[in-house]
Amino acid sequence: SMTGVYRKQWVGLTGSPESQNLSAHLPLYYLGGGIGININNSLTGVHRNSKASISYSHYLSIGDNGKLAVGASGGIIQQAFNGGDLRAPEGTYEPGSAVEHNDLFLPRGNVNALAPTFGAGVYFKSGDFEAGISADNLLELSHEYALENGLSEIQMKRHFYFVTSYRMDIGSYLSLSPSIFVKTDTKELQTDISAILTYNE
Question: Where are the beta strands (DSSP E) in 88-201?
Answer without folding.
Answer: 110-126, 129-136, 142-147, 150-155, 159-166, 168-170, 174-184, 189-199
